[in-house]
């Protein structure tokens, strides 16, 4: 199991422990369905997304099944807990101008700026998850063919391409990386030469988003992944190659990106429709200036 997954499970169980303690429950055998429902309700009231609550529910189901199987429980109270409603809404992607501004924010004169720009460029150009970016090793990068190998969800390895432009940005960071301490095999390193933490990357992306003045879009590493997917489809990419690049096991999620990209195109058409211009607002503007059409 990946380190990130273990940390996630630890956080889920820690939240449960705190919730049960607040309800006066100290022993696992004392947990009832009512206690668990109260915990899930509290998660919703905290404003967590329905997908986050749904995943917490799944983690708890696994945990209680394990405790029952190991003899820690005589009965499994999670069996009586209803599955939470799941609303899977895609994160709104960045626009092209917003993405370009974001990449201009890191200071390319500093080693940290070169690293941050390289990370964000790679996520925007390949759709890698933040965990995949941080676990990427130098030996897994094929500079000649502009591809890299990553270990995705479910311990499935895949090959992901990147552009020559991104390759140049990565090489600029590589030269700077070699000047400092290198204590881990990962490509992206912190000041001490060790691999970066996920929370630090999230914070720096948010900080660059604020510096770029990006509003109306939540700027995060996952937003960069969504932005890549939507732009890939919008620029002519197909759903099957996108599925392979992103590492999706099915086409379900990929189809959502296709739908989002098409919806975006439809919205743009509403703004710039030639017919609307000729016979709508545009026509009124032309009429106010004087028509160039001379009646017979």
Describe the structure.
This protein is 57% helix and 4% strand. The longest helix is centred in the C-terminal third of the chain and has 21 residues. Helix 4 runs antiparallel to helix 5. Strand 1 and strand 2 form a beta hairpin. The protein has 13 helices and three strands, in the order H-H-H-H-H-H-E-E-E-H-H-H-H-H-H-H. The C terminus is likely disordered. It is globular. It is mainly alpha-helical and 296 residues long. Strands 1-2-3 form a three-stranded antiparallel β-sheet.
Reconstruct the topology from this structure.
Layout: H1 3-22, H2 33-45, H3 50-69, H4 96-104, H5 111-126, H6 130-135, E1 141-142, E2 147-151, E3 157-161, H7 164-177, H8 198-211, H9 221-234, H10 239-246, H11 252-272, H12 274-279, H13 281-289
Helix pairs in contact: 4-5, 5-7, 5-9, 9-11, 10-11
């Amino acid at each position: 199991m990946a380190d990130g997954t273990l940390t996630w499970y630890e956080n889920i169980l820690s939240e449960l422990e705190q919730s049960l303690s607040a309800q006066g429950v100290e022993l696992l055998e004392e947990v009832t369905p009512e206690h668990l429902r109260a915990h899930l309700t509290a998660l919703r009231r905290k404003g967590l997304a329905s997908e986050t609550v749904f995943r917490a529910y799944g983690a708890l189901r696994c945990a209680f099944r394990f405790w029952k199987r190991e003899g820690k429980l005589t009965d499994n109270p999670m069996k009586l807990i209803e599955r939470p409603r799941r609303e899977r809404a895609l994160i709104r992607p960045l626009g092209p101008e917003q993405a370009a501004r974001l990449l201009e924010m890191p200071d390319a004169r500093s080693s940290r700026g070169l690293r941050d720009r390289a990370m964000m460029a790679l996520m925007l150009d390949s759709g890698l998850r933040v965990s995949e970016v941080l676990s990427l090793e130098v030996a897994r990068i094929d500079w000649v063919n502009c591809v890299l190998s990553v270990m995705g969800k479910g311990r499935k390895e895949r090959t992901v391409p990147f552009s020559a432009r991104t390759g140049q940005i990565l090489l600029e960071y590589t030269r700077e990386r070699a000047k400092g301490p290198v204590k881990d095999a990962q490509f992206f390193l912190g000041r001490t030469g060790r691999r970066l933490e996920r929370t630090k990357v999230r914070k720096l992306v948010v900080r660059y988003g604020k510096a770029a003045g990006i509003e109306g879009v939540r700027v995060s590493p996952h937003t960069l992944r969504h932005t890549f997917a939507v732009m890939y489809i919008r620029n002519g990419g197909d759903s099957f190659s996108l599925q392979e690049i992103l590492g999706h096991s099915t086409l379900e999620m990929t189809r959502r990106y296709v739908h989002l990209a098409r919806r975006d195109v439809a919205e743009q058409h509403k703004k710039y429709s030639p017919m609307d211009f000729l016979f709508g607002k545009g026509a009124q503007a032309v009429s106010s200036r004087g028509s160039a059409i001379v009646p017979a």
